[in-house]
Design goal:
The structure holds two protein chains of two kinds. Chain A has helices at residues 52-59, 81-90, 106-116, 122-135, 151-163, 181-196, 208-214, 232-237, 242-252; strands spanning 14-23, 26-36, 41-45, 67-72, 75-76, 91-94, 169-173, 200-204, 217-222, 225-230. Chain A is α/β, with parallel strands linked by helices. In chain A, strands 6-7-8-3-9-10 form a six-stranded mixed sheet, with helices on both faces. In chain A, helix 3 (106-116) packs across helix 4 (122-135), helix 3 packs parallel to helix 5 (151-163) and helix 4 (122-135) crosses helix 5. The longest helix of chain A is centred in the last third of the chain and has 16 residues, at 181-196. The relative contact order of chain A is 0.17. By secondary structure, chain B is of the alpha+beta class. Chain B has two domains: 47-163 and 248-387, Orthogonal Bundle (MetI-like fold); 165-233. In chain B, helix 3 packs across helix 8 (250-276), helix 4 (109-123) crosses helix 8 (250-276) and helix 12 packs antiparallel against helix 13 (349-378). Chain B is globular and about 75 Å long. The chains are: A alpha/beta, B alpha+beta. At the A-B interface, helix 2, strand 6, helix 3 and helix 5 of A face helix 9 and helix 10 of B.
Chain lengths: 254, 387
Amino acid sequence: MISGNATESGGPAVRIENLDKYYGSFHALRKVNLSVERGERIVICGPSGSGKSTMIRCINRLEQHNGGRITVLGTELNDDVGNIDEIRREVGMVFQHFNLFPHMTVLENCMIAPMIVRKRPRTEAEATARRYLEKVRIPEQAMKFPGQLSGGQQQRVAIARALCMQPQIMLFDEPTSALDPEMIAEVLDVMVTLASEGMTMICVTHEMGFARRVADRVIFMDGGEIVEEAPPEEFFTSCRNERTRQFLSQVLGH
Amino acid sequence: MVSLLRNQKARNVLLQVLYVGSLAALVLAGVMIARRNLAEQGITSGFDFLYKSTGWDVNFSLLPATANDPYWWFFLIGIINTLFLGSVGLILATVVGTIVGLARTSSNELARLLGRTYVDIFRNIPLILQVFFWYAIITHLPTPRAAHEAWGMLLTSRGLYVPAPNVGGVAMALAILTVIAAVVLPVWLGRTSRLSQPIGKRLAIQLAGMAAALACAVLVLLVARLPDAPLLDFPALQGLNLKGGLRIPPEFSALAIAIAIYGGSYIAEIVRGGFKAIGKGQVEAALSMGLSPWRVFTLVKLPLALRAMLPILANQYVWLIKATTMGIAVGFTDFFMVVALTINHSGQTLEAIGILMAGFLTINLSLAAVFNRINKAIALKGNQLRG
């Protein structure tokens, strides 16, 4: 029996303790500790290969960690398949390359998981899907196929698709990195709206403007470790670490 | 003149004229040589021979055949035998190929190793050798008196005897058509109910469609059953031989098995390629929403892999249909063998080969056309795809 209450109880949304992750002999995450409160917005940045994507992919078990503990909404992520399913139902994810199902319409993309995983009736799933498509401002594209949309539109569909599962936590893995400059804004707008509504968000992104506007905490990772962790105003003005300063000067310098 | 040769349009016209002219000359020369040779051998060309009786018989036929029947009837029997062998071979090859192909993409190391060994062995042995191998094995099975028996079927060195319904030819054809409909209908229903029905109910609708078509088939057989005979005719030993039922000759079994196993090794590679072509991202997205591995397979992996596989699969099917002409090596009277016998007995070489070519062109072009239609219907829409 899956304990439905476990995900409802208090405590942090995500707690990561002494997380270790290896790819073969490469040590991708080194004893990472992080706690994310409910409703908190976290932005993770850092150079490529620093382990930021690996870390958020561990949160919904797209990557399996090798050491330490991850607890999501009170449920520990371990080899228990029931726990993994329970966590995945409550954690939505948006990917760099959108990863929409190209053989389904936009509407079907948004309806499939609620109908199968949450066992929602079709009418309800469709109403929810249309509501979230409205929210990401592309209700008119519902019957189109992903390949007929622009990158920015596809990413907004991907956000709507994740939201249709009505998750408690949203993970964003570089959601704007594959987009043209003018499309970045339309995706960030949706994310800002989402943040203002109190969604727990963990975003891997290099959009420092976004971090400044919505983040409660900015985390800088390098070499598989959390190097710096601070509220945005402190992070951007008075970071303590040399590596962080170097990174910021490169990201903000032009 | 020089300026005209440098003119692009004039050059193109000249090349076309030369090309068509030489082609026409070739054809004309061929026809004239053929006519002279035929006249020398005293053979009259034309298709009148089609209405003469053959004087020889075939060893396997789904239609009634005697030596008194005309050539055209035997051509028809040959085509039906080829189609029958082709469909059985293709279906079996697809089943084998799917299993082996999935084993090759499996995360289980043993399954991968077995799959690879299978492909390495059977893809690299010539088809004709495999046909002979299976033919030798089947003809060394026990005699009818010591036959292996299972579910009313008898396996002997003289062939596989299976129970056959006691119905007329037309009813049988009708029943076969309904069974084909039972396979096609769910696919069609699945597509048309795609948006209007929930995914769970779609399966129910598809199953209902299939059940209805199968019920029709059973109904046809029940209505058309011959009076005073049991519905199913079971093979049984009478004296030294087996009587009743339908005999699948060793030649047919050997060919079907060889095509299934040889074709399966190629199809396995196509299946593997299809699954390798799926974007990892789509699978991760599906998993991240909590879909079970089985649902990820049926809803995401399979539909996407199928789209990648289909064009190559069509190619392979056309190839395997042509491979049925191996029938002549073991003496199965497929279309090619009927044509070869016709040439031997009537001497109407050109006509018979013309019919052979037209027949295979029709079969394979129809197959390709069907696959092109499917391909077009399920093609991914739009050109903004990534990942």
